[in-house]
UniProtKB/TrEMBL annotation:
<keyword id="KW-0067">ATP-binding</keyword>
<dbReference type="Pfam" id="PF00176">
    <property type="entry name" value="SNF2-rel_dom"/>
</dbReference>
<feature type="domain" description="SNF2 N-terminal">
    <location>
        <begin position="330"/>
        <end position="424"/>
    </location>
</feature>
<dbReference type="InterPro" id="IPR027417">
    <property type="entry name" value="P-loop_NTPase"/>
</dbReference>
<dbReference type="GO" id="GO:0005524">
    <property type="term" value="F:ATP binding"/>
</dbReference>
<protein>
    <submittedName>
        <fullName>SNF2 family N-terminal domain</fullName>
    </submittedName>
</protein>
<keyword id="KW-0547">Nucleotide-binding</keyword>
<dbReference type="InterPro" id="IPR000330">
    <property type="entry name" value="SNF2_N"/>
</dbReference>
<dbReference type="InterPro" id="IPR038718">
    <property type="entry name" value="SNF2-like_sf"/>
</dbReference>
Length: 465
């Protein structure tokens, strides 16, 4: 155990110490009054360094205070809650609630007991550590206030300009504030959440989220969200962001089973293709038909016919059922594919993207040239893709770890016809997504066309570390 004589001076400028055996009091003097021929001051510094090291006494004190909710940030949060309950004449602004240099909470028995258990009786460290944390919190609160004001300014710019750059700036400002707000315990409070909600609504109003939350208070004239985002707004390479909702909860304790496809289990593979609107076929649109038997003997790089299995077709159909909605403005239902490794989840994703592109091309044909409406759309009354009146001509985005990027590129080449899709790789090293897509000589414009007429055939393969 570390000597108790050092515990009261963990953060002071102590040079030498001495203990009086009569009163057990700590006495110290400056080096000019008491030379240090034996290196005792160096020993003190060594012990202090050991106490302050990672995993040392002070680190344990901080962890214990955090577990029992007795840090300056926890207590400041409590004080803010009390401030909100005061009459309006006595209430102060959130960031003007004072932070105490010390607090009576540290003297309460539960705090002392927790520290005693963690530190074998060295609870005297708590006061000094609390003072240190309180000073740090004061600096963070000042920063938090400044960043909140910056968020306010950026949100005003985004509401006025309604441009992707303004929204991106507001998002960065909110992200910067969040980093501080986590430490000051503000991230789950109304003044933070309300600004976060405002930003989400702004993104949604530009076609990147649910269309059910309309922004009707804008000073400028805005087109009804029921008409979907304009072509200009659709130029950003994003599919509509779908707000995730929880539905169909199941217990996984009672053994494994298929979840979400029980209503389709009685259908044969042929019946599933008919549900998708492709009766009599055995491949997804744009799928690789394979090399003929006579050509296989001559072609060293012969390609295999891509024919999906029953579980891959039923999974694709279930995803599409969730992607289409009954009413304009409704949210689509996201889906998780939980098959084991090696069962062809990649082919299912390729199938979903291929089907959506097929439906888009059918939508663009004259009515008399279109195929019949898919059965699942007719039977379940699901005429709207992701709550929009028409399927937008937008690229698909696949986000993968960097280590799987090459594998995805190979799978697209293997299972789809050459030229049907144009995978373009994007990573953080490529610059901002906005500049990547707006460069007239870049790979995005080359794939999607200068007027973005081929945007739906473009596949963005985005990788991360």
């Amino acid at each position: 155990m570390l000597p108790a004589i050092f515990l009261g001076y963990l953060e002071g400028g102590l040079c030498e110490e001495d203990t009086n055996p009569q009163d057990n009091q700590v006495h110290y003097s400056r080096q000019e009054r008491w030379p240090d021929p034996y290196g005792y001051a160096a020993y003190c510094n060594l012990v202090l360094a050991a106490i302050n090291r990672k995993g040392g006494v002070m680190n344990q004190v901080e962890e214990t205070l955090g577990k029992i909710g007795a840090t300056p940030a926890d207590l400041w949060k409590d004080d803010r809650s009390l401030n909100r309950e005061r009459p309006a004449t006595k209430r102060v602004l959130e960031h003007q609630v004072p932070i105490a240099d010390t607090h009576a909470r540290l003297e309460e028995r539960d705090v002392q007991a927790a520290l005693a258990r963690a530190l074998f009786g060295m609870q005297g460290s708590a006061v000094r550590k609390y003072e240190n944390l309180a000073r740090s919190l004061k600096r963070k609160v000042t920063t938090s206030c400044a960043r909140m004001q910056k968020v306010n300014s950026k949100l005003e710019d985004a509401q006025r300009l309604r441009s992707p750059k303004a929204l991106r700036d507001a998002t960065r400002a909110l992200t910067d504030w969040r980093k501080i707000a986590i430490g000051t315990k503000e991230v789950d409070e109304l003044h933070f959440l309300s600004r976060e909600r405002t930003l989400k609504q702004l993104w949604s109003s530009l076609g990147f989220g649910s269309l059910e939350d309309d922004l009707t208070a804008s000073k400028s004239k805005s087109k009804s969200t029921q008409d979907g985002p304009s072509k200009k707004k659709c130029r950003l390479p994003m599919l509509t962001m779908l707000r995730i909702g929880v539905s169909g909860l199941h217990s996984l304790v009672d053994g494994c089973k298929d979840i979400g496809v029980l209503h389709l289990k009685s259908l044969s593979t042929e019946a599933l293709w008919a549900q998708l609107g492709l009766p009599g076929v055995d491949q997804f649109p744009f799928a690789e038909p394979g090399t003929g038997e006579s050509a296989k003997d001559m072609a060293p790089l012969a390609k295999t016919c891509a024919v999906p299995f029953w579980h891959q077709v039923v999974g694709t159909l279930r995803i599409l059922e969730g992607a289409f909605t009954q009413r304009v403005g409704n949210c689509a239902q996201p889906t998780l594919l939980c098959n084991n490794v090696g069962l062809g989840k990649t082919v299912q994703i390729i199938g979903v993207i291929s089907m959506i592109q097929h439906y888009y091309k059918q939508q663009e044909l004259p009515a008399k040239e279109r195929l019949a409406t898919p059965m699942f759309i007719q039977e379940q009354s699901l005429p709207y893709f992701a709550g929009q009146k028409t399927i937008p001509n937008l690229p698909s985005i696949v986000i993968t770890p960097r280590t799987l990027g090459n594998q995805w590129m190979e799978q697209w080449k293997k299972f789809t016809q050459l030229g049907s899709f144009v995978p373009v790789r994007y990573s953080v090293e490529s610059g901002t997504l906005e500049s990547f897509c707006s460069d007239p000589t870049g790979p995005y414009r080359a794939a999607a066309g200068q007027d973005l007429e081929h945007a739906g055939q473009w596949l963005s393969l985005q990788t991360y570390w």
